[in-house]
Specification:
The chain has 5 helices and no strands.
């Protein structure tokens, strides 16, 4: 908000642990339904370290980037809200592109 006061923001509160919340999103990656455009080295490092036995106290940090990714992907994929049609359009476009390969 300090950079752009008009940036959309939604506060969230976790009722489950990070790993449990990440499981459905990890399944989407395994199915090839989620991809990154570009390089996100710090995020990808955190994703590789995110295992069931990850201990943020021992690691000295919490995987904040992975947590933000999980919230964002969950919101886009699992919650049908206003503007959902545009996401369906891009899903169909991606499926067509994948069929061409």
């Amino acid at each position: 908000r300090q950079v752009d006061a008009n940036a959309p923001f939604r506060a969230v509160r976790a009722s489950r642990g990070k790993f449990t919340r990440a499981e459905p999103v990890a399944a989407l990656y395994e199915q090839g339904r989620v991809r990154h455009c570009g390089v996100f080295a710090k995020l990808e490092d955190q994703m590789c370290l995110m295992t069931p036995d990850f201990d943020r106290s021992r690691a000295g940090y919490s995987p904040d980037r992975v947590d933000a990714l999980v919230w964002a992907v969950s919101s886009l994929v699992f919650e049908q809200g206003e503007g959902a049609a545009v996401f369906e359009f891009y899903r169909e476009m991606a499926a067509q592109e994948q069929g061409k390969q």
